[in-house]
Amino acid sequence: MVKIRLKRMGAHKKPFYRIVVADSRTANSGRFIEQIGYLDPMVEPNDIKVDAEKARKWLADGAQPTDRVRAIFKKTGIIE
Question: Helices then strands (H, E): number in the chain?
Answer without folding.
Answer: 2, 5
